[in-house]
Design a protein that fits this description.
Layout lengths: L9 H11 L5 H12 L18 E2 L5 E5 L7 H4 L7 H12 L20 E5 L12 H17 L5 E5 L1 H14 L15 E3 L5 E5 L4 H5 L5 H15 L2
Parallel strand pairs: 2-3, 2-4, 4-6
Antiparallel strand pairs: 1-3, 5-6
Length: 235
């Protein structure tokens, strides 16, 4: 679980270790561990990861995907971002269709999934109650995103899954002194913003069940964003 490529830079491997050992947010620690101790019937008997989740993917990625937070019975159970839940089913299908993944499904960490040219991370690293991390909890996680942005030097395109991820990336740029456009670009599905250093930020609705069940986000809509990301990353 939560493995990182053995060829990844040592500082990326060290970042993974630091993230998984974090206990900075008491509410999140309590929630992730309580969920693991009281799983629904369909997951009873399974071992839960129940720790913060590091990012994962290709250390040489040109596209960085930023999500919101692990799902209580998805990543919090399996130990890998977007693995074992409905949001992941949508995300990995879109990544596969755009050429970033070698298979369209991600069910568990030993399923053979590999990302090529993409790395997945999140604004918050622990499963939050009601899928809503607090501003303070996201603030405490921000240094992890800042470090990933520094270490993943090949990234040229950011895909933000939802407004919270969009805002988190812009905040991370300000914190790291990279600069942001003025006025600040507004989130929207299909939105694109060019950063002062040439980085491209793309927005998409998050592939949550709330969005996919209602038709607010369709598979062609999500696929189009990642197809665009692939095209932009190759320029």
């Amino acid at each position: 679980m939560a493995r990182v490529d053995s060829e990844a830079p040592a500082h990326l491997r060290e970042l993974v270790r630091r993230i998984t050992a974090c206990r900075a947010c008491p509410r999140l620690v309590r929630h992730r561990e309580t969920v693991a101790a009281n799983p629904p019937k369909r997951y009873q008997g399974q071992h839960y990861w129940a720790k913060p989740l590091p990012g994962f993917g290709d250390p040489r990625a040109c596209v960085l995907v930023v999500g919101l937070a692990p799902a209580a019975h998805g990543g919090n159970r399996t130990g890998r971002m977007f693995t074992g839940d409905r949001s992941g089913d949508w995300l990995f299908r879109a990544l596969y269709d755009a050429g970033f993944a070698n298979r369209p499904l991600s069910e568990h960490p030993d399923d053979g999934l590999a990302l090529r040219g993409a790395y997945i991370t999140a604004t918050a690293r622990c499963a939050p109650p009601a899928n809503k991390p607090t501003p303070l909890e996201m603030r405490r996680c921000l240094p992890f995103l800042l470090e990933e942005l520094r270490v993943l030097a090949g990234v040229r395109v950011i895909v933000a899954l939802g407004k919270i991820a969009w805002d988190a990336y812009l905040r991370a740029r300000r914190e790291s002194g990279l600069g942001v456009p003025r006025p600040l670009p507004r989130f929207g599905h299909g939105a694109m913003a060019l950063m002062p250093d040439g980085m491209v930020l793309l927005g998409t609705y998050h592939p949550s069940q709330q969005n996919t069940f209602t038709g607010k986000l369709t598979r062609p809509m999500l696929r189009a964003v990642f197809t665009r990301a692939a095209r932009l990353a190759r320029r």
